[in-house]
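In the laboratory, one determines a bound structure by crystallizing the protein with its ligand and collecting diffraction data. In a computational setting the workflow is compressed into a single prediction: the sequence and the ligand go in, and a structural description comes out. We illustrate the idea with 6-O-phosphono-beta-D-galactopyranose.
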Amino acid sequence: MKFPKDFLWGGATAANQYEGGWNEGGKGPNTSDAMTNGAHTEPRKVTWRNPETGETGYVDQVFGSPLNIPEGARPEVIDGYYYPSHKATDFYHHFKEDIALMGEMGFKTFRMSINWARIFPNGDDEAPNEEGLKFYDEVFDECKKYGIEPLVTLSHYETPLGLTYKYGGWLDRKLIGFFETYARTVFKRYLGKVKYYLTFNEINMMEWNPYMAGGMLDYSLQAKAQGAHNQFVASAKAVKIAHEEFNGEIKVGQMLAYQPMYAYTCDPADQLQALLASHATLFYGDVQTGGYYPDYRLKFYEENGIKLNDTPEDYELLKNYSADFLSFSCYGSSTTTTHKDVIGGDGNLSFMGVKNPYLSTNAWGWATDPQCLRIALNQLYDRYRKPLWIVENGIGWADIKEEDGSVHDDYRIDYLRSNIASMRDAINLDGVPLMGYTMWGCIDLVSAGTGEMKKRYGFVYVDMDDLGNGTLQRSRKDSFYYYKKVIASDGEDLD
Ligand code: BGP
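The predicted complex, in C-alpha cell form:
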C-alpha cells in the first residue's frame, strides 16, 4: 500500500517557537513574546507591567485556568526574564540552511506561520512593514528552489500585543477588519508563491487558553464565545477574499486540535461523557468547516446566558464561505471517565484526560496511540466530507546528541512507523481524502506548552538548551534518514 503520488509530505513549525528575530526588521511584540520559559512541572509565566504605576510582576499561565493579570496591568517584556520566542531556534537567520535540510529529506511541503506583528507591528497599522514582507518573500523563494509548497498559518499562538492593549484581543469585533487587511495583504503579496493558508492554529484552544489563542485577558464564558465567533467570521472572510479576489488560486483551511476521545469503560455514563467532551472540539469544526452553529452549542449558550454580539450577515458568511479543507493536529488520543477512582491524569496537558492502560506515554505524559490517525481521519471525514490534512503529529523527547553529532532517536522512528501506517490505512482501506502530512517541529524548536527546548520533536537537532545557550548548530538525527526513505518510497517502505 502506497500513498498517492501528489501526497504532500513535510514538516511543520510556527513562528513563535521557531523564528526568533523578535525585535528585528521592524517586527512588533506579540503575545508569545511576553511568555517566559517553564518546565514539565513548572508553568510558563506571562510577565506584566502597570503603565501607570510602573509596577511589574508575572502570573502563571496554566492550561484551562484564568490568567490573573492585575487590574490596570498588561502583558509586557520585562528585564530579567528569559523569553524563548525571542531567539527561538533562529529560523530568521538560518532559513536557507534549514530549508536546504528539508529539501534533502525530500519535503514536498513546509508548514510555517507568518508572524502577524512582523507584517503589521501593532496589528492595526495603516500600512504593512515592507521589511517583514520581504523576509517571507525570501523564505518562499528558497522553498521554491527545492520544489517545496508552503502551507502558511496566519496566526499561530500569537497576536500583536498592540491589539491586546487597545481592544482586548479577539474579544473585539474590530479585529475581524484588521485580520481581513492582514490576510488580503499577504494573499496578494505572495500570490503565485503560496497556495495554501490556515487561519488560526488550533482555533479550539480558545476554549482553554484565550491568551495564546486570541490575545485575550478575559477568560469568562461570554468572552471565549465572542472571541471564537469573531475568529470564525474572520476565517470566513479570509475564504471569501481568497475565492473572490484571487480567482480561486488560494485555498484556506481550518486548523483544529483533535484527538479521538475514548471512554475509559463501557459504562454508558462514560460513553456519554466522551460524546459530550468531544463536542467541545467539534463545535469549532462544525462552525468553520461545517458552516453552521450546532444546536448543542446554542443550547449551552442559552443555559449560560451567553449572548453574542453578532449580525445576520455573520451567519450568511459562515454558511457560504466555510473552510476549503480541514487540517488538524493529532498527537495521540484522550480518555475520559466518570469513575473518579481511576482519575489521576498524567502529563502537563489536562486534555489528555486519564491514563489509558493500553498506551505508552513519553516523559511529558503524552500518549502514543498507533491507531489515532486512522480513527481521527474517519471521524472527521464522516462528519464534514471535506479534504483533510494532518498538519501536526509527532513525539516530544529529551534527545541526546552524541559526540559525533548523531542522535539515535529510534523511539521517534517507531512512532512515525505506526502513525504513518495508520494514515496509510485510512487512505487505502477507508478511502479518506488526505492531502498531506507535516510532522510537527521538523527542525527542533521551543515547546509551546512548557517553553522548554528539551522537549524536542525534530528530524534535525538544534544545539540549544532551555535557557537559549548553545551554538544553534544543526545536525541530522537517525529519524532524518528514516523519513527521507519513507518519502522517497511514497510511504511504501516503513521498515
Ligand atoms: C500544538 C501546537 C504547536 C506545538 C505542539 C506540541 O498544540 O499547535 O504549537 O507546540 O502542540 O506541543 P508542545 O510544544 O507543548 O509539546
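DSSP finds 15 helices and 17 strands in the chain. Keep in mind that any predicted model is a hypothesis to be tested, not a measurement.
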